[in-house]
Amino acid sequence: MRTLVHIAADALPDHDGEGLDMLAASLADLIRDGHELAVTYAGPAEAAAPAGSRLVRALSDALPGRHVTALVTHTEVRAHDPALRPPADPADSGPRTALHPYAVLEASAVRDLLADGTVPVCAGGGGVPVIREPGTGRLRAVAGAADPARTAALLAAYLDADALLFLTSATHLFAPRSHGRPRPLLRVTPEELSAVRLPEGVSALADIAADYVTRTGGIAGVGPADNALGIVRETTGTLIHPAPVARPA
Fold first, then answer.
1. What's the CATH code of the domain at 214?
2. Which of 11, 20, 89, 127 has the highest CB neighbour number within 10 Å of its CB?
3. pLDDT value at 94 more than 60
């Protein structure tokens, strides 16, 4: 099974230690289970290189004899992306809207690395955002950051990944209730997920995962960073799967 794992910012340790070792062990479990694995991760773009280095070192320790490599990737965005417009108020220094990714330029290299048995760690922080200049087609880096989760889904689709996993600090997606604790979602279709009013902080991630399943026919999961294999095996996390095809009566 070809699997792309995206590590959300809240699940990515910012230094070496037990948390990083636990994350690496979680990813290594997928490989030992027969998964062909590519890894992307979120976080500030300026911290992408150190985070990628930490992941590569931890994964190499967890997978002796397996090649693990960090790859700097460039994510093409459109010059007319609204997130590239200057703020209406020059004094507005708040967070900018993420750029919408259209292509990961090193996607074919990632595919080649997978075919060679290498574990690529790439698209850190959504990749370096670039646009193509009109007329010349030359690449130019732009300010801002591409949406890391959308970039992961875009790359997974190019790689024909069977599964797209989003590792977070939470065990599941949770549906709120009017009374009592939120209800954990276990196994849902994109249609069932769209009917659930999720908290604002995770609704965008759920939409990206559901859209991936609808477009590709693969599966997507959202679950704990310390048990990636458990998401696939449905012992933890939320698994999103295609709706069954209706058979004619």
1. 3.40.1160.10
2. 127
3. no
